[in-house]
Amino acid sequence: MDPACPGPTCPDSGPKVMVCKDWAMHRVVVLALDGVIPFELSLASRLFGAATDPDGRPLYEVVTCSPDGRPVRTAADFSIAVEHDRAVIARADTLVIPAAEEFASIVDRDTLPRRTAEALALVRPDTRIAGICVATFLLAAAGLLDGRRAATHWCHSERFRRLYPQVELAPDVLFVDTGRVLTSAGAAAGIDLVLHLIRSDHGSAVANQVARRCVVPPQREGGQAQYVERPVPASPDAGTSTTRAWALDRLHEPLQLADLAGHAGMSRRTFTRRFRAEVGLSPGQWLTQQRVDLARNLLESSDLPVNRIAERVGFGTGASLRQHLHTAIGVPPGVYRRTFRA
């Protein structure tokens, strides 16, 4: 840390980002609610807290609050004292809501606890919101997921669909990033989500460094996604998961629907129906998504020229890769590489 900078209490800091000379720190606020699951509560502090710049300065300030600043009852046999009340939410760049057991019993806006609703009312329009596990129920009840895709714990997916038909549930992913609002599946998927946020903010090198420090994998199921949902096969011999794993090893080949259906031992019509039910995408959409994902990883981690990357991921030409990447994230390969290069 710059010895001339007093850190989080810097008087030159604005309400959103604390700035000292050329150093900006992103403020993460964790909202702890009664019944919070301790593991999920600790994820943001542990992972964001391990992210530093090349000089060892923290990239995030993480603070934890409760609606009224009082101790919070957890899902375990202890309570947790916090230092802040909900007022800090108004200054959050990212708000993280860990899972609490009671969230799955929330059915609509009217069943939101009053203090929770008051806390959410303080969220600024430009604040990024991340819900872990069944926090998806809370976000849906608050209307923050209307018309969006979302993930939640698989145990609660059918009930979530019944309660919130206005939300497009992605049942077979680790997390969903819709831009402003992000949601994850179960507890461990919260790690994937936070690493994804760090990678989105600061690139692969920082995210991988955090993963090493915390002794967790920096990515799961074949490559870290950027602004995408990551399919998670239920088991090696169930549905289309085996074929998806087979296809991931052959993205450089000109795979067609007939190839995928043939590998799965299904007709093309049956395979397409099963695939969409499990993944939420058509086989063609999924293949494009995986190819874009692999291209991003190669742009981040290698010196391969764009045309060579296009061949490696199955797009064939650099022009095709540029088109697909621009459609997916709105930037060309060169810009992406400069932004996220490890």
Structure description:
The chain is an alpha/beta fold and 342 residues long. It folds into two domains: 7-214, Class I glutamine amidotransferase (GATase) domain (Rossmann fold, 3-Layer(aba) Sandwich), CATH 3.40.50.880; 241-340, Arc Repressor Mutant, subunit A, CATH 1.10.10. The chain has 13 helices and eleven strands. It has helices at residues 38-49, 114-120, 135-141, 157-163, 187-202, 204-214, 241-248, 257-264, 268-279, 283-301, 306-313, 318-329, 333-340, and strands at 17-20, 23-31, 60-65, 72-73, 79-80, 94-97, 128-131, 149-150, 168-169, 175-177, 181-184. The strands form three sheets. Strands 1, 2, 3, 6, 7, 10 and 11 form a seven-stranded mixed β-sheet that branches. It has a two-stranded antiparallel ribbon with strand order 4-5. Strands 8-9 form a two-stranded parallel ribbon. Strand 1 and strand 2 (23-31) form a beta hairpin. The longest helix has 19 residues, at 283-301. The chain is globular, with a radius of gyration of 21 Å. 41% of the residues are buried.
Give the CA-CA distance, first to last residue.
22 Å
User: Globular, elongated, flat, extended or rod-shaped: what is the shape?
Assistant: globular
DSSP summary, beta strand count: 11
- Share of residues in helices: 25-40%
Taking pLDDT < 50 over at least 5 consecutive residues as the criterion, the unreliable ranges are 1-23, 221-238
